[in-house]
Structures are given as C-alpha cells and as structure tokens.
Amino acid sequence: MARILIVEDEANLAQGLLFNFKAEGHEVRVEGDGDAALETLRCDRFDAVVLDVMLPGKDGFEVAAALRAEGNFVPVLMLTARGRPEDVVMGFAAGADDYLPKPFDLSVLLARLNALLRRMSWPRDAGKNADKNEAAPEDLAEFSFAGRRIDFDALELHTPERTIRLTLMEVDLLRYLTRHRGRIVARKELLEQVWHVREDTDTRAIDNFIVRLRRYLEEDPASPKYLQTVRGVGYRFMPNPE
User: Fold this and answer.
1) In the CATH scheme, what is the code of domain 3-121?
2) pTM summary value
3) 3-state SS of the chain?
4) pLDDT band at residue 131 under the 50/70/90 scheme
5) Which residue has the higher pLDDT, 40 or 93?
6) Domain 137-237 classification at class level
C-alpha cells in the first residue's frame, strides 16, 4: 500500500481517481489547489503525487518546482490537458517524473503510477555488489568521474562539496549521457529516448534542464567542462575532458 496525494480541482475526476486508487489498496488524500497541496506536502509524507497543471493558486509547474527547490523528491506524475511536447518537457524541467495528458485511460494511469512506486522502492544497494568492470554501462549502479559519483539506484550525485538528491528524470538523463559519453547527443535524441516525446518540437526547455544539471556537475556552470554544448546540435558528456 502506498500513500498517494491527488492534486486536482475537477471534483468529479478527483473523486474518480480517489475511488480507483483506494480500490488498488492505496491510502489517498485529495487537494484542490496548488497552495494547499504544497502545505500538505510540507506537513505529511506521501509516496507519490498525481498533480494537475491547471490549478487555482500555484499551477502544477510551480508546485513541482517548489517541491524540488525544498528538497522534496516525492515522485510526481503530472496529469493535464496540456499535452504539447513543449508542455511535456516543461513539466519534466519543473521536476515531474512522468506526464500523462488528458483524456487518459485509467489502466495507463495506474500502470504509470505503479511504475513510479516500484522505481522508488528499488533497494538502494541493488546491483552494487556486481563487478563494475564487467558490467555494461547501462547496467552500472554507479558512475564515477572527476571526483564525482552518480548513484543511480539511490538517486544521488556525490560531489567533493555535497550530496545532491536527484529526481527520477534527472537520473534517467544522466544515465543516458553516461551510456553515450564522448559522443554528440542531439536534442531530438534526448527528447525521444529520455522524455519519450516523439513529436517534432523546437522547444528550448530541454536547455533549461541541462542548465540545472550543470549547476550540480560543474565547478563553473557558465563554462562547462563535463556537460558541453555543441552549438546547433545538442550536448556531449565528457567525463575526462582534455
């Protein structure tokens, strides 16, 4: 059983989700606006949040961004009628871990929610006893470079100065970049392979996401050494720049 917070101002939809989540065995609470949701999340612990974007008070993007800024890394599934690729990437950049546009199939929503819950419940030490020299890059539980260590299972980045909690989406992006380190990765490839946005889009929101990762990784984010921009194409992760 998990504790789920539904943040949805459409009463009929909120009650329908409440009924179905309870039928799945979860403990559920509903909030109807962004400000109330933030207060609830500051005072209580939940295993996941189903968060609408269009809300009274703070919208879903603002709620997700505020949670991450406060160090709350509860999994967030954004649920909204705004399904354009630009909005999807904006949601991920704000800190969402998954995104489902309305109208949606209930079975798909439950599958997405259960996937988030499973990922957060994976043992943090899973796979850490494996021989890291024999494992393929995509199988590594950790990746170390330049005094930094990405712990994919624990959702943490360890630097010489601090330990940073990461969102699931930040971990997915870092994992993809480490798999393809040294080569140029196009923005379109990242959108399709990490965000699973397959429509053509000219969004720059992904650049803002990269800016945040540079704040974690770089000594000087304005002059990045490890997460480099290849103008007009995309990015290149260089763990050992010359």
Assistant:
1) 3.40.50.2300
2) 0.75
3) CCEEEEECCCHHHHHHHHHHHHHCCCEEEEECCHHHHHHHHHHCCCCEEEEECCCCCCCHHHHHHHHHHCCCCCCEEEEECCCCHHHHHHHHHHCCCEEEECCCCHHHHHHHHHHHHHHHHCCCCCCCCCCCCCCCHHHCCEEEECCEEEECCCCEEECCCCEEECCHHHHHHHHHHHHCCCCEEEHHHHHHHCCCCCCCCCCCHHHHHHHHHHHHHCCCCCCCCCEEEECCCEEEECCCCC
4) very low
5) 40
6) mainly alpha
